[in-house]
Design a protein that fits this description.
It is built from five helices and no strands. With about 100 residues, the chain is mainly alpha-helical.
Length: about 100
């Protein structure tokens, strides 16, 4: 179960907390394991949503080569940096940092 949870991206801390909540005095049963997996559903759904958005945003600029960081949905979502950094300055500051 630990390996399966790790493969799904669940942290060891989260796995440890879940295991600590299992009943004592008996081996975990199917119902216990189902409750554990349901407890991680929202975390996994949130991760899937984030990764899907990143994938979709990334595919819109793959191969363009323009480095339009001022409008890039990955480096500058909602153009948050318009007033402080523009263009490749954002990329350069990240590379320098």
């Amino acid at each position: 179960m630990i390996k399966a949870a790790q493969r799904a991206g669940i942290s060891l801390d989260s796995i440890g907390e879940a295991l600590a909540g299992l009943p004592t005095g008996r081996a975990p049963n199917r119902r216990d394991w189902e409750q554990l997996s349901r407890s991680w559903e929202s975390e996994l759904e949130s991760r899937i949503t984030r990764l899907t958005k990143i994938r979709d945003d990334l595919s819109s600029c793959i191969g363009c080569g323009c480095l339009s960081i001022d409008t890039c949905a990955l480096f500058n979502p909602d153009d948050e940096l318009a007033e402080t950094l523009g263009g490749t300055n954002k990329l350069e500051s990240e590379l320098a940092g």
